Structures are given as structure tokens and as C-alpha cells.
Amino acid sequence: MANYYDIDDILAEEELVPSVFQHNANGVGLFDSSDDTNKVEAGSRLELPFWVVRELYLRQLISIRVPPCFDTESKTREEIAADAAHVDLRSRCPYFYELGCKLAPLIGDKTIGPFLLVAFRIRYREVLIKAHTLTMTVAPKYLTLLTNEEAKLYEAGQCSIAAFKKWRIGGPRFQIAPVLGRKRKPT
Amino acid sequence: MAAASEPHASAFSAAELEFLAEDEIIEIVPNLRMDPLNFISGDFGPFRPQIATQVPLWLAVALKKRGKCTIRAPEWMSVDKLAQVLESERDSEKFQPLPFHYVEISRLLFDHAREDIPDSYMVRSLIEDIKDVRFHKIGTGLEIISKERTYALRLKNLSAMEANIVRPFITRALETFYKLSSSEMIQDSDHMPNRQAQATNRGPRLPEYQYLLLLIFSGN
């Protein structure tokens, strides 16, 4: 609730989480578009955004299944165990860490926390090096691997280095305001 | 502060830091005669030809631009002292004590008063080397926080410009580590029986914190 207005929090909660309905539900056929009746059967598996899932779970209408990117036997875990720095987390789930943090207390999976921490530790080191040394030309390929949080971290480091370099080169201390840029021709 | 379009940008822009650095006192040798100048920050002068006077850096640069003085380089900016500092930077893991605004002061002096500094090429290259070594040390320091559970980081004797460069990066990194570590603690508390529930409600315990957070301006 503390992040009610934070746009990244809102977007992170938009991520889909697979869940299983425990009861029949009328009037929400929107979720299950396979047939025309406007209802969802008990036991059907659907992917819902996290904010819906949390509310329904607290009212015990659904049970949550772990999303594929956090699952214990999934490819993601294996890849991170092998080489965390180069795993393309953005295509799996751009809000990897935020979603993991929210999911973990909800479904009581105790391995998600340490797993996220380990992954972030290793990737953080990469971000640290790259943010401060790479120039804009080389960077873009690496940026596509980063989740949203890591991308912001990277950008913060990059911005401040770029600003420092620009200042160091020197140049005129005053700049013409953009409003005064062009001369107007007398018509 | 000005020109920060996103709230997480560094608190100061480089030009603002330079502005703050210009308050440092420096010695000049004027070649004009002038009565004392009275400013809010103090009184400077009277200025007599060939008599050394202490003035703020901004005043020194202004007078120099008008050709009214020569600037005397500060004593830390000699080739010997800087070579010594460079040696000790390379040998030890800590940062050597340097003037807080050494980057900004050196840049200002090189831009406006290059001929007043003896051996300016040597001095300039030494300062660049010192800056690179210190930056590299900052990098190793930042790597350490990923190894253990750190909640805060202390970097002694860091200069203003260096602190300003790493500030946004490191505050975000520490925040993310904290967030991820605390969710892990939620997992640990699920193991404990209920009678210890009050203990966990105290908030995250800090059994292993290594450093203190001092990333605001602290010279010592």
C-alpha cells in the first residue's frame, strides 16, 4: 500500500500469474474465452494479473500456481544457476524482482527469496562494471537482458558518468535558452 | 535541485558542485591597487600590487580573466605532493586525504590559470591518475556490498565529485538489496514457532552489518 502511486509498482502488479479457480464464478467469462457461456468452471486454469490474484486468494476463491519463471524446475532457475549475468530476464518477466517479492509471502514458497537474492547479486556486479565503463554504442545489446529495476540502476550510473564527462570537457558556462534559439524573420 | 528531471537523479549537477567549490580560499598576487571588497561571506583586500592576498576562488578567477592578478597554486598541487599521494593511493586500500573539491578546483585552475601552475602537464596527468585510482577503489568497494548483507556503506575521504557520481547508483543498489533481503527474512520467519513472532516484528535484525552509511558529504 505504500507504493500506491508508484508507476512501477502498478505495472509490476499487472504481470500474469497462473491460478486455479476453486469455485464456479458467474459473469467473469472474460477470463476464459474458450466458450461463450459467461462463467468460469471450478478447477479451470487461468492466467490473471497479480492484483486480481491477490484479492481472490485472500478470499480463498483461487489457488495460485507458481509462475514459470520462478518455478523450481524451470529453465530460468537452471540458467541462473549456470550463468546469472547473461540470462535474458526481460523477456521472461520484466518485473522479475518486484513480482518475486510480492509473490513469496503469498504462496509461502521459501526458496524464491534466496533465489532472487543470488540472481541479483551476480547480475549487480555486471551492471556495476558496465554502467560505468561502456559507451552508448556498445551498450544496447546488454540492456535488453535487464529487468526494469536493473535498467534503472544502470541508467542512474550511466547518467551521472555522462554528466561528469560532459562537465569535464568544459565549454561555455552559459547556454542560450532554447526559447531564444531561432531568429524570427520579419514578415 | 535544478536540472533533475527524475527524482532519483544525483542531488547536484556537476556545474552546481563547481559553484560550491568556488568558495574555497586561494592565494593570488594582484597587480592592481584596490580598496577592500565587502561581501556577505567576508571582507577581502585591500589589494596592493605584488602583495599576496587570500580570496575565494570565484573572485580569483574573475580577476584573472580581467588580467588583474596571477593565481598562486595551492600547496597540495605540486608535483611532489601529488606524486606522493598517487603512490599511497596505489599502495593502500583506503582513500588518501585530499581537498574535498580537488577535482573542481583543479579543473578551474587549468582552464583559467594554466600558466600559473608550475609543470602543468605533470600536475594534470598526476591528478587524472589519482582520480582513476580512486574511482577504481570505489568500484571494488561497491562490489563488496553484493557479497554480504550490507545496509550501509562508508567511504572515508571521498571527494565531492566522486561522491556525487556514485550517489544515485549506490542508493538504488542498496535499496534493492535491502528489499530482496527482507523478503528473504519473511521466509525465515515462517520456520519459527509462534512464540517468537514478537521478535520478528521488531523489523529486520542486523547481525552482520559491515559499514555505516555516510554518502552525504562527509570529508572525514
From TrEMBL, chain A:
The keyword NADP does not apply. Keywords: DNA replication, Nucleus. InterPro entries: GINS_A (IPR021151), GINS_bundle-like_dom_sf (IPR036224), GINS_Psf3 (IPR010492), GINS_Psf3_sf (IPR038437), PSF3_N (IPR055221). Residues 75-167 form the GINS subunit domain. Residues 5-57 form the DNA replication complex GINS protein PSF3 N-terminal domain. It holds the Pfam family PSF3_N. It comes from Rehmannia glutinosa (Chinese foxglove). This is GINS subunit domain-containing protein. CDD domains: GINS_A_psf3, GINS_B_Psf3. Gene3D superfamilies: 1.20.58.2050. It is found in: Nucleus. Belongs to the GINS3/PSF3 family. Its main location: nucleus.
TrEMBL record, chain B:
Signal peptide: none annotated. It comes from the Eukaryota. It is found in: Nucleus. Its main location: nucleus. The keyword Kinase does not apply. Residues 14-71 form the DNA replication complex GINS protein PSF2 N-terminal domain. The keyword Nucleotide-binding does not apply. It holds the Pfam family PSF2_N. Residues 76-176 form the GINS subunit domain. Keywords: DNA replication, Nucleus. Component of the GINS complex. Belongs to the GINS2/PSF2 family. PANTHER family: DNA REPLICATION COMPLEX GINS PROTEIN PSF2 (PTHR12772:SF0). This is DNA replication complex GINS protein PSF2. It comes from Rehmannia glutinosa (Chinese foxglove).
